[in-house]
TrEMBL record:
Residues 1-22 form the signal peptide. This is Major facilitator superfamily (MFS) profile domain-containing protein. The lineage of its organism: Eukaryota, Metazoa, Spiralia, Lophotrochozoa, Annelida. It comes from Helobdella robusta (Californian leech). The keyword Signal applies. One of its GO terms (cellular component) is membrane. Pfam families: OATP. Keywords: Disulfide bond, Membrane, Signal, Transmembrane, Transmembrane helix.
Amino acid sequence: FNTVKWVLFFFCLSSTFRSATNGLFSVTLSTVEKRFQFSSFQSSILASATEFGQVPALVFIMLCGHNVKQRPLFIGFGTIAVSFGCVLCFLPQFL
């Protein structure tokens, strides 16, 4: 798994799942809003929180990323974090 082909494969797989999550999130937002009796304001906060959550990560990468010697390790941890976020996004549909 330590070749460029595998890195490209996992990066494409991660991008596909993230795109599917972003696309399906708007569809499931109305279901979550009805099930948990959110107001429109609360559901809009939930929708925008997915974008605001990326800001601390970007600040961290800008400040500390240029000195990191193991960038693939950080990319791997970032991919795992995005995967965890995708699971959390759809968790209410399965509960």
